[in-house]
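Human:
Focus on the backbone:
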Amino acid sequence: MTPSVDEAGRALADPTAYADDDRLHAALAVLRREAPVHWVEAPDYNPFWAVTRHADIMEIERDHRLFLNAPRPLLATAEMDAINRQRAEQGIGLRTLVHIDDPDHRVLRAIGADWFRPRAMRALEPRVRELARRYVDRMVELGGECDFVQQVAVHYPLYVILSLLGLPESDFDRMLKLTQELFGNADPDLQRGASPEEGLAVLLDFFAYFKELTEARRANPTDDLASAIANARVDGEPLNDFDTASYYVIIATAGHDTTSSTISGGLRALIEHPDQLDRLRADRDLMPLAVEEMIRWVTPVKEFMRTAAEDCEVGGVRVRAGEALLLSYPSANRDEEIFDDPFRFDVGRDPNKHLAFGFGVHYCLGAALARMEVRAFFDELIPRLTSIELAGEPENVVTTFVGGPKHLPIRYKLTPA
């Protein structure tokens, strides 16, 4: 049954909708067609404008002075909005690049920017490809059947980003668990608990870990990203504990969870579209385009919020100062006005103007690394893959923010290295 406009809008505030691709995209299609800028009043949430067309989202992303990340950068319940405001006032909340605006955003972004520039990516590529081989070899060791998400995909990009930070492998499992608890706080299988207190406990565990790391890197600097963050100075002063910890959190979490979702969702798409898998096998030069299509198809970051700094108009709709807007990236990446046959998975799609990494000053800092990791993995997997199929029902993460496949049971045959 096709949802009404109001039902479609409320789906954007329902974490279970993001675990059901058909339901989510049916709702988004209604909004793009009938109310692309729609006022949503959902139970337990402060109201917001749902923005679902690619062009309108681009307009908002371009104007970072009119549309601000603060004070509501992510969709959360009204209760959590109030708690987050209170924490920010007390100086104990997250203050990542996602949460802040210029001039602070520009200054803090520069701290990590050099670590993700082309020169740094070229230096890192041999390590990324080595890890890609390790995890394809791991698939061979698993005997031809596995839960690809849990046994392969979540570990590979985690090793990459935590190696870049310089963390010891003995801490990787801890970082994985904390990341899943942070981003999966609406998923019964991943959350530590449903209460705000349990959510805060996850955050405080991150902060405690990174406070200790900061002290160690300030005492004994090393040649890694963790040292660059720990020893960064703004106006001659080191970052305070919460800004430092926040920087680590966004790098250590978003730096791997989104990539593992893309790899898992990309593999599922190839399984469900065997003609595209055959096409990629036959023409490996398509791999860069295939990577972009996987990123568009999965769109791991589901939304960011913006707040209008003054009265304005979006998509012909009047928005008042102080009102919040939800930017729906899965909707933008299926917009019929931008993408030819947007519900077709096409490894040769060109052009591919997806917004999975955002746009403008808040464009994803790690986009080049994510592309490299996805390409390296499939460069290693595809030549060795002789057969693959689903071995059970895939499941997606229950979320409104970052997510993708949670379980992907597969059966396959791979040639040894």
Observations:
- The longest strand covers residues 303-308.
- Residues 157 and 256 are 5 Å apart (CA to CA).
- The mean pLDDT is 93.
